[in-house]
Fold each of these.
Amino acid sequence: MSKVKFYEGSYIESDSLISQIFSDFNFDFKNKRVFIKPNLLSAHPPEKGVTTHPSIIRAICKYLLDKGAIIKVGDNPSLLSNDAFERIGNITKIKEASLGFYTDITKNYRKIKTRIGELSISSEILDCDILISVPKLKTHILTIFTLAIKNMYGIIVGNQKSQLHYQYPSPMEFSEALIDIYEIRRPDLTIVDGILAMEGQGPSNGNLRELNILIAGDNGYLLEWAIIGYLLDKNPLSIPYLNIAKRKNLFNEKDLIIEGNYKKVKDFKLPSQKINYFLNNILGKNLIKLIYHPFRYQKIKIDKNLCRLCLECVKICPNNALKFESKRIKYNKSLCISCFCCYEACPYSAIKI
Ligand code: SF4
Ligand code: SF4
């Protein structure tokens, strides 16, 4: 059996919420190497709701240090510039919240052989005794949600993340790859920051939604099952990666025990690509593969007034669809594979769908 528990509260109550979570999910942290993996997608301040809130990370660090753990906090973000580690740490305020343990995990990695090829995975993730994943509750224009499973995509170092989009351009194939990556190292505990959530066109440009809730669980699939199915009142099997994981027998919802209080959110807005969601809902697992593709040819647009020519989008684009030419970003639609890596990475929300 696997427990998922809901904790209602606000950021100013982070310390007590986190203490409660660790008393419900019991670990012996003494002298253990504990890695804390927030969602540090890009360089956005906490009030934008793009990254895990620093008050949650600070509360986790304080608790673990008090219990004698040896902690590290970090992520492989989508920004690829040399100053990304410092810039993201400072702007998201995660560096300060990590109490001196904010760690650059992009430098040390090991190659791991998987079904989808050899992947470069941060050594800190592979070597820790206890892995705590702390995603943000957000929608995602490609995968519908980014929660427990998608947060672990950040264990891959450097631009291999965008290369995988190139390798697996359809959302179904990409979702299957997500599962492979999650299975490399399942977190021991996942705490979802749903206090300030994001709906609509997430993960970086959606609308903020105060749900005032943290959700914790030791099985990421069942945690998502509870969040999507119970809290957000959607069909979890219409989310491609959960559908695939279910077919692979990676979880059984009969094992789920739900505890804690939550108010059902009946009007949580999915990305406009929700056509995929409904098609999945109606057509089920096989037909969706055939028809999924045509609905994903949405293209990006760069708002020149917001663009600051930081070139992050150019660096991350896996198919050279973006180039810096004549002092502006040039977009070659025919090369675009609609992976939306640029949309995720842009620190100034200058890219629209
Ligand atoms: S659109 Fe402009 S601001 Fe955004 S990542 Fe590209 S260059 Fe930077
Ligand atoms: S332009 Fe953006 S959406 Fe298109 S392939 Fe490049 S990164 Fe992906």
Amino acid sequence: MADPKEHNTEKYSVQRFPVVADRNDAAYSRSANWVQAVSHGFHQERRDDEYLAKTLAAYQTDQRELTGVYVTGEVPGHSLPADVPVATYATMRKSLNVGFGRTLESNLITAVTVRGTHRRNGILRGMITADLEGAKDDGLAMAALTASEGSIYGRFGFGVATFERSITVDTGPRFRFKGQPSGTVEVADPSVLLDVAPQLFARVHHLSPGSVDRQEYYRLVASGSIGQDGKPDASVRSALHYDASGTVDGYVSYRFKGWDHKPFTMEIVDLVAASNAAYLDLWRFLGSIDLIEQVTWAEAPVDDPLAWALEDPRCIESSDVRDMLWLRILDTRAALEARSFPVSGHLVLQVTDPLGLAEGTWVLESDGGAAAVVNDATGTAPDLSMDAADLASMYLGAVSPVTLAAAGRLSEHTPGSAFRAQQLFTVERPAHCLTHF
Ligand SMILES: CC(C)(COP(=O)(O)OP(=O)(O)OC[C@H]1O[C@@H](n2cnc3c(N)ncnc32)[C@H](O)[C@@H]1OP(=O)(O)O)[C@@H](O)C(=O)NCCC(=O)NCCS
């Protein structure tokens, strides 16, 4: 990886390394220090040995690559030692569902922190530009992240591609469904999710545009094996949904917020449903739990069938609608060819890119189903021109090119081409990502 900035090459050294989870390995302390630095960067507590051991084991399963930036010279006496990185960054490769059952291996970026005393020195810029270039060199067409702030990543060509919201659902007397259940729900020991959760998520991942394959941590959290402090979370409960043939096709993990919390509330930890019926029946179950007056979920879809399945959609109080998945196209042609476009059409797209990775002009020819043909159209007059970040926002159909044109982010040279792009880029169900990373 390149050094953060030319003028910083003497001040900092950049190390990129695989996770070491074995405490007897001499390189373990580098990984442990890296995790402590991430906790510091996100204002979390100092981590104990149990947390470090579990976290590093999970990171190793995900084959994360860690990057640490270290001060090269002497550090002042009594300050954090030089082997604690002043900046952290990690990547792992996972698949992204790009619609119609197609997937695209993507470079997921996570754990981005720069210690406050070293901020605004170009350290993030150095780490991310080198990483994106490296991912493209490795043949990847897409990078993805979730952002702590909306103002950081647009300059690096990332665009918001999916959204989510928090909901509070009143499960009192007005919580009634229009239809009937079509399966059954049974309470299960959460530990069964260690096996069941990844299997079910694989089905859901295949069905859900915008879905990112999950990291190891998810099954541990859903099963109560690990809580925020690294210890088992005994408050986690779980229930499974069975279809008419008795096959498990959904689960929910949830926890009671306590008798001091009024109204009495159940909080969803994870809800994964591989069919529409499973999704609604799991909500029926949550709504039927005695003594509970409301259910909260912090990762609900914005376009939620629950609202349309209830007699009174106002049982759902929605708050904090927010961006979730940010995408970054690394190779425009490969990213477009990875998708399926559901209508036929012809579109010349001109893409600009502050980092030059996705830049160019391409003609997209779709016959409405089969893979599109994308050809270099350098020199051809474009129908639409946009920044790479805006193409990333359009990519999963969750942001309309018509809206982007109205915002002045996208230029429509051929009248009606933004609407044509909207039709071309639509996917079979609203894009939603259930995986935070
Ligand atoms: C966000 C963070 C990683 C930035 O690191 P940094 O090394 O200070 O960033 P850089 O110096 O490389 O800045 C690169 C550019 O981004 C801009 N920038 C950096 N952080 C920004 C922020 N939070 N909001 C707006 N712009 C930001 C800089 O002004 C600079 O712009 P320029 O190149 O156009 O001049 C760092 O402030 C941090 O650790 N924050 C707390 C943890 C966090 O939120 N991490 C992100 C998790 S998704």
